[in-house]
Amino acid sequence: MAAHGRPGPYDALVTDDCLFCRIVAGEIPSTIVRETESTVAFRDINPQAPTHVVVVPREHYPNAYELAKADPGLAGALLAAAGAVAEQEGVTDGYRIVFNTGAKAGQSVFHVHCHVLGGRPLTWPPG
Ligand code: 5GP
Ligand code: ZN
Predict the structure, then answer these.
(1) Could you give the C-alpha distances from 124 to 42, 60, 99, in angstroms and in order?
(2) Does ligand 1 have an atom closer than 6 angstroms to the CB of 53?
(3) What is the pLDDT confidence band of residue 44, given thresholds at 50, 70 and 90?
């Protein structure tokens, strides 16, 4: 059972020490900036831009593709939450929503999350 206490399709893959399950459950403190019924958004502990917020579904899925296949509605809710965070943070003139997917792309927490980055010019291509 995931730390959030509700059964889900990926519970077999959820360890009790999934960092983001524990943040969702309130077991690890974080600076939460927005919450919905299905999502939580909190400030990244190691910000890469003036606005750097991590947005997660409460339910555990390992990455964006698995989330989208299993629950497209929840994937949409995650994107809507990311946009609402950008509005709330006042960065709608230019921001980036990033899903690092796989260790080679820099994913270090295998609970799907997107980064909302803004508040400074963002270069392309990313590193
Ligand atoms: P990833 O590298 O998987 O795309 O993103 C994981 C993000 O989680 C990183 O940007 C990292 O700084 C952030 N992070 C890691 N541990 C914590 C933590 O304990 N609290 C918060 N708020 N962010 C964390
Ligand atoms: Zn998790």
Answers:
(1) 25, 30, 16
(2) no
(3) very high
